[in-house]
Amino acid sequence: MSILLVEDARTPQLAPITTGRAAFNITVASFSLLQLVQQLGAPVAAFVRTYLRDVLAHDFPDVRLMGRSADSANDEGPTLVINARLTPRAKNLDALRELWQDDTCRGVVRCDGQIAAVVRPGWTWSTLEAQSGDPLEELVGQESDLPELEVPLELMSWPHEVIAANMDAFDENIRLRLASDRYRQLNDGLFVATGVRLGDYVLTETAAGPIVLDEHVSIGPYTLLRGPLYIGPRSRVLEHAAIKDAVCTGHTTKIGGEVEASVIEAYTNKQHHGFLGHSYLGSWINLGAGTCNSDLKNTYGTVNMEYPGGKMATGMQFLGCAMGDYSKTAINTGIFTGKVIGVCSMMYGFVTSNVPSFVNYARLFGQLATLPPEVMVATQQRMFRRRNVEQRPCDIRLIHDMYRITQSERDRYGDELAL
User: Fold this and answer.
1) Is residue 254 classed as helix, strand or coil in its secondary structure?
2) Cα angle at 176 between 56 and 278, to 5 degrees?
3) Backbone angles phi, psi at 364, to 5 degrees
4) Are residues 268 and 357 in the same domain?
5) Domain identity same for 263 and 333
6) Along the 419 residues of the chain, how does pLDDT read in single tens digits?
7) CB–CB of 356/406 below 8 Å?
8) Which residues make Cβ contacts (< 8 Å) with residue 118, sequence separation at least 6?
9) Hey, is 342 helix, strand or coil?
10) Count of CB atoms within 10 A of residue 3's CB?
């Protein structure tokens, strides 16, 4: 019995979150989908975009990647096929576990017309390896005898839905996390793993939800922590910070200033004063001192997001920004409400519009220029060295591949974008 995670044709809609990241590796309320499905205790395989396979093979050696690791000795195929955009939340895991444990269950589960999961489809690994397009749509379309299953599963289709899911799933995901024996309760509602250090005069408020500090987290003095809250392993919260209301961080982050209802992935720094709210930050991002984002319109109305297909109503009153991996802001950068910021871009002044990937964005000063991938490769090397991380050939290739696949973002700016 095994599990297959599939990136379907709609995965690029989640860009810039998924530009350099597999959809199953998006963090929501302290868990990624991969981390959740691994709790089912079965081998996991993944069907992902081709350019991500090399770096994923290094980062997730226990995951069999279709197109790289065919196993002709065992061609039985997966028992459970899951859309990699499935929201990583505890109630989705519970639903998957019921499907997994029912030996008589077979069929397809849809969410708003999109395939969320397929149970015991009868596909072989050889059949899956031969697929060049979206295997969910192609193979389900070929199996007309698959019954429709009424199971409540949720998918994420747009960046703002990741931010919304983080807030909505926080309580249930934290309860699931605390079900393990890795944490001990230090104070009422404050749970810590081994090696946690708390500075003097740290104020913890847990009336709205627990605070979970993972291994070797360091909390500076004179800090406010208001739950629900999860701080990932080896992260530092700087002195005088206020971290509150559904914030979750990956490992090895540095967090300061005021942060509210946001996801911050591994190796990202937001360590200086400034506000970050209702936002998603990818990995290896650095926010300069004084950087702030707006998460509320002056009209107090709901926020519309601008995506390649046009404007989309989110129905969310509080919504900040979604920023892709490796992007940076200068000191005192101001990011307007509901902005999408691509990977590997650098911002200065006021960010009043969406920012394409690989761009120096300084519209306040009349400057908007392409940022060559070679610059980001050199920047990556310096960043990695500071964290004692080795820059691998696959990391360099990923930078160049991301530049190639995001060319259409820069093309939309036409003559406005200098070379």
Assistant:
1) strand
2) 70
3) -60, -30
4) yes
5) yes
6) 799 999 999 999 999 999 999 999 999 999 999 999 999 999 999 999 999 999 999 999 999 998 765 554 467 889 999 999 999 999 999 999 999 888 889 999 999 999 999 999 988 888 888 887 788 888 888 777 889 999 999 999 999 999 999 999 999 999 999 999 999 999 999 999 999 999 999 999 999 999 999 999 999 999 999 999 999 999 999 999 999 999 999 999 999 999 999 999 999 999 999 999 999 999 999 999 999 999 999 999 999 999 998 999 999 999 999 999 999 999 999 999 999 999 999 999 999 999 999 999 997 777 889 999 999 999 999 999 999 999 999 999 999 999 999 999 999 877 666 54
7) yes
8) 80, 81, 107, 108, 109, 136, 140, 146
9) coil
10) 23
Beta strands 275-277 and 292-293, pairing class: unpaired
Give the DSSP H/E element, type plus range, for residue 57. Answer: helix 53-59
Lookup: tokens for 289 = 């001192």
- Nearest residue to 100 via CA among 156, 39, 169: 39
Question: How far is Cα 154 from Cα 261, in angstroms, rounded to an integer?
Answer: 20
Domain interval for residue 127: 3-149
Burial of 234 (0-12, 13-18, 19+ CB in 10 A): middle
Helix, coil or strand: residue 377: helix
153/158 Cα distance (integer angstroms): 16
Establish whether the linkage from the previous residue to 228 is cis, with ω within 30° of 0. Answer: yes
Q: How many domains, the chain?
A: 2
Q: Is 149 helix (H, G, I), strand (E, B) or coil?
A: strand
**Residues near 406 by beta carbon (within 8 Å), at least 6 away in sequence:** 15, 19, 342, 343, 356, 357, 358
26 and 92 in a single domain? The answer is yes
Strand order in the sheet with 203-205: 203-205, 224-226, 242-244, 258-260, 275-277
Q: Is residue 154 part of a domain?
A: no
